[in-house]
Amino acid sequence: MKIKLILLVTSLALNGAIHPATAQDNPPPNQPPRQHDGPGKYTIAQATSDRAQLNTIAFDSLAFLTGGFNEDTFLPPGKISDFFGFQNMRDVDGALLGHNTDFLTRIANNVLTVLNDEQKQQLVELGKSQAPQISNLALQRLPLIQAFCRNLAGDFPAASQSLNREAVMKYTSGIFELSGKLAFQRAEVYGKIVSSLTSAQKADFAKLKFGDSRTWPDVAETDALDKRTVSHPVHVAMMTYASEFFSWYAGSVESDTYFCPEGHGTYFGSFYMKDAPAVHQKNYSISTALTGDSGEAFLNTLNPTQREQITSLVDLQRQDLQDIVTTRRAVATELRQFMSGSSANREKVLKLCQHYGELDGELSYYYATHFAEVNKTLTTVQRAALKKLRGIEGFSAKSPFVYADPIASPTIPNTDFLFTPGTENTR
Q1: What is the per-residue pLDDT across 46-98, written as a single tens digit (0 to 9) for each?
Q2: Is residue 426 part of a domain?
Q3: What is the domain count for the chain?
Q4: pTM of the model
Q5: How far, in Å, CA of 71 to CA of 271, rounded?
Q6: Considering the domain boundaries, does residue 217 fall inside one?
Q7: Cα–Cα dist 383/371, whole Å
């Protein structure tokens, strides 16, 4: 892929500071965000429940039908190589601060003050190696997103009438394989650091509780790391690593397996619709109300036939979603071999991640095709209602993104290969 771009790598872009929860009124500084439910509700069972999935799918559809290609490319970077429990630590935080943009920075700074120079240098070298690959992973998403947008607009190649499910699955398999390679490299380095921890360092980490950010002291950034000693991309990558290291070290296979309901099918613009107001904002809290509320309102805007196109997706993706949980648990279990000083099986991890990508591709194909069917029959009144429901007035993307960073003049290869001649049947 040849892509000419101007890439502005910010800390938000690589460290996942914005969490794909949902946006609501920003609370006063130092106040926890309003939550509808306590942190205990965030489990794998809840994430895969019919209600959570339907709300998320409906919200995705609302974003896709009211946004555009540029908005669809926006992605919180914490969604890649996410086998280290950070999402779970965020969602179960007893202080209800997991959806605050300062959450990651706070735990990362604590970790970096505990690690010694040699241990931090391992993260520096990892950052130098991975920063280009992390950007490339985001760029690989663009052809798929463009194909989904073409399908929405009815812009098919000659002699074609639909997306090709198998081609989409094969393509996402490659994306997830790269994500798996990054995760494997991270786990290997994290395992080496774990094995080198002193008794004093272990005692310091024991004071920092997984799921309770109230136990994390405020640490000055200057005490954690001298940013002048590393490039900006490496520094922001290190913030990701430091936060992941702690959630992995203090967590479990179950926390590593966990994902939030919107963790898959991430090509439809819902992250932009929720997170755009939080970009570059310090101490900005993003809540858990909008996905469910807007998802329900979206469904109520549709007629029964349109609504069935969305609600049927819950059953259509059910087997894939169950398989995703099993696959994630297998990857997480294998990567934790590094925690005990053993070596994980790289080939096994990559094959699992390839399969993981196929599953994500299949459910994404279902989303894209069903959303397009709804779009064909929307009335003028419905479109106006959905535009109003979208909210975030004043926020629009003038260019695509690599994570949260805008890029200029991307050249995307021909996406005809993601379509198939004739009409393909879905399940």
Answers
A1: 999 999 999 999 999 999 999 999 999 999 877 899 999 999 999 999 988 87
A2: no
A3: 1
A4: 0.87
A5: 8
A6: yes
A7: 14
